[in-house]
Amino acid sequence: MSRTSTARLAPGDTAPALQLPAIDGRTFDVASLAGRPYLLSFFRFASCPFCNLRVHELVQRFSELGGRASIVAVFDSPLENLQRHAQRHAAPFPILADETGGAYRAYAIERSLSGTLMGMTRRAPTLLRAMARGYVPTSLKGSFITMPADFLIDEAGVVQTAYYGRDEGDHLAFDVAVRFSRGERIAQDALAATGGVR
Fold it and tell me: Which of 70-79, 81-90, 116-125 has the highest mean pLDDT?
């Protein structure tokens, strides 16, 4: 798997600063979440079927966080393209565009052709379900081989969980984020089999 020059983040690391344009046209600064835990999710390009199906899940299940935690979603995409594909979600959390890849580098988000191909093969039924919902990859603006990643970050801005997807549809199970929002500490080694958009 190809990696950036930065090492992967691990529990106990301070979450890097993040300030990016949101689909509502404003600049979002993650520092505004100080004192509140959140799930930070990195996605692929804006029209990625797996990504849009996952955002749909996050929107549908957001209330399960009970107002105790938030979500921040980041896409490997120019803002105008992200607005075109993500506004339909009407998400109750910020969806951000990282056209230059600065946040992806800071969080050591990986790129992998084999992970992309593996996701297409292993998750073909999910891919077809996503496309049937209208999440069709009509424009490729951003890297096709970006892998997803999820981070659970506590009230002090410290990474509690770092989950790097093994393929293009592999995300931290949302149930883990719900448990985190309730104050549970999640053992990093217990995450190996949790991921994936189903």
Answer: 70-79
Could you tell me the residue range of the domain that residue 41 belongs to? Answer: 19-190
Look at residue 135 and tell me if it is in a domain: yes
104 found inside a domain: yes
pLDDT in tens, 151-176: 999 999 999 999 999 999 999 999 99
Residue 27: inside a domain: yes
- Residue 138: give its domain's CATH number: 3.40.30.10
Looking at the structure of the chain, the number of domains it has is 1
CA proximity to 95, closest of 45, 159, 20, 146: 20
pTM: 0.88
Of 151, 148, 146, 112, give the one whose Cα is nearest residue 9: 151
